[in-house]
Amino acid sequence: MKKAPTHPLRAARTRYNLTIEQLARETNVGAATIWRAEHGHSINAESRRRLCAYFGITSQELGLAGTVESERKHPAAPSSQEVLDDAPLSSAPSLLRKYTSLEEASTAIPSPSRHAPLQEQTGLWLVLGASQLASTIKEHWTPDTLFEALHIVSQSLQGLPESMRLNLLRQGGASPIHARWRMSVTESVQLQQSFAQSIRQAWQFSHATSPEQVFSVGHALRVLLEHIHTLLPAQVHACFYASIYNLIGSALHHMNDIEAQEQMHASAYVAATEGHDCWNQAQSRNWQAIAANVSGRYIQATQFIEDAIRLIEHEEGEEYMCSKAHLLANWAYNAALLQDYAIVREKLEESRRLLEGLSPNEEFDHSNWHLIAGNCALMNGRYNEAITHFEQALRHIPTRWHSRRVLTLLPLAEAYARKREKEASLEMAQKAASEVHLLSSRMLSERFLEYQGVLSETFPRDRTVSTFIAQAKLVSYHP
């Protein structure tokens, strides 16, 4: 069989003795984008420009000219994965959408002198931020959520020595911090702790706000990590990447972009494997199971869960116990969809036992367990049992965790409807409706529509129900 010719970009990379990952770091182009280019796929204009500038040759010489001509004839948006590698999604708030890098943002305003005081630097950045603020607020950002997002992102840099923070600001994030910068052991630990804290805060933020806002914060953390990765041990920054990819994937789940979600969690799994991080490996597999479940691939979802359990089955500690309990409960949920109720009972009981004696945990705790147990009972037609579980879950969910509240209120409303308790059902649905509108989540909006279908089917030609459904259209999510 005739061997396929080597792509010019790959040949150029090989001449420089670079791996894809090394070239990605040198050019600030996503590794997945470089892989696609070497396999003949179209990449965006900015990525082509950076690659050509690095090698000092034209797009045609790099084998990228054909994609340019194709895009002129058939203009198309970059793929979801390429967007995640090189720029924010088009649906992300305009604060991050207008500029694809910190370098572009920094060149949008006059640059101060190299030795300008911090106050002048900060003032210029405030001008840039203010110019974007009006359109950002239009996209459901409130001053509180904007401030919280800024706090999360700035937290990630608190561990940097002041000289490095100033250098990053002056350079506009044009490239990763040069390896010549040296940090003491204490400074390195502080940087790792501050970035880890920022990621934890971003996950907490995800419970209380819209998926587009979570996506923007996740993307900002990914960009910052690219700029400071030379200061971190390889294993540490791989683990950070895994957690950030999973965060972005969770936002894509709520945005109902399942294909992009699966790509994100697959990237998270690879990063976690490189970092020898079995916890994030298991988290990635669990999210892959959730994506497979949404797509109706219940057997594959169970396989992902089994793989995740194998990864952490010998690990100890509360964090791992919570993860195991979460995985077992999700296994039970998949079994309920397959109507294998013997497995449902077995896995729910195993999950419940693991939770005994554990303190509350935002990933998975007794409220989550009751939510999943309630959904399993609902699918089995045991409506009284389902209602009891959902009400138990609601008692322990923080009021600002809007997404989890909606995911509990809607099946509770359905359970009441199935029992033909109309008033109770509508009461729960009204509570869910206001939070669905607040979050602007495609996924939750679809769940709300599914509930309305159950309501119409159960109470046909009921005037109160018809009025509720008509009013509910006012809070539907409009992409």
From TrEMBL:
GO molecular function: DNA binding
All residue ranges annotated as the HTH cro/C1-type domain in the record: 9-62
InterPro entries cross-referenced by the UniProt entry: Cro/C1-type_HTH, Lambda_DNA-bd_dom_sf, TPR-like_helical_dom_sf, TPR_rpt
Placement of TPR repeats on the sequence: 367-400
UniProt entry keywords in alphabetical sequence: TPR repeat
Gene3D superfamilies from the UniProt entry: lambda repressor-like DNA-binding domains (1.10.260.40), Tetratricopeptide repeat domain (1.25.40.10)
Protein name (Swiss-Prot/TrEMBL): HTH cro/C1-type domain-containing protein
Species whose genome carries this gene: Ktedonospora formicarum
Biological classification of the source: Bacteria, Bacillati, Chloroflexota, Ktedonobacteria, Ktedonobacterales
